[in-house]
Amino acid sequence: MNELIKIEIVTPLELLKSKETKMSVLPGSEGELGIMSRHTPLMTLLNRGIIKLFDENNSVTDQIAVDGGVADVSEEGITVLSERAEVLGSNASNKQIINEKINALNIKLKKPEFQEDETLKNEIDFLNFVLEKSN
């Protein structure tokens, strides 16, 4: 019998992903964590990295880049809270969207009132990480 566990990946702007999965691999601060149904409850910090979701055939179905965060594992499932997260895709349109976001942020960063804005710089850095991992 294949038991599934629900994972929700949440950013301040949206519920990015909500899905039943056989296993989720998270980029924990102490190393990767493989979480399956009936896992011991825990709460842990996440590093910047890739969350991998697996189906019943042990195939990766989704990959989501997160910029650190917190994961809460309970009987109800896995909740990931992250400041930034993006679904990885290898298709050209996904990469184009990420590049457009980077270009728009770079234009904004050139304005005098935003030149020292660390949040914008961190967002650009994270989006470049997403592009790198999309290849």
H-E string: EEEEEEEEHH
Number of strands: 8
Strand-residue fraction?
A: over 45%
**N-end to C-end Cα span:** 35 Å
Number of domains: 2
CATH class of the largest domain: Mainly Beta
Q: Biggest β-sheet, characterized?
A: 8 strands, mixed
CA-based gyration radius: 16 Å
Number of helices, where a helix is a run of at least 4 consecutive DSSP H or I residues: 2
Q: The CATH topology of the largest domain, please?
A: ATP Synthase, domain 1
Q: What share of the residues lie within helices?
A: 25-40%
Helical/strand content category: alpha+beta
The CATH superfamily label of the largest domain reads: F0F1 ATP synthase delta/epsilon subunit, N-terminal
Low-confidence stretches at least 5 residues in length (pLDDT < 50)?
none
The second-level CATH architecture of the largest domain is: Sandwich
- What is the overall pLDDT average? 92
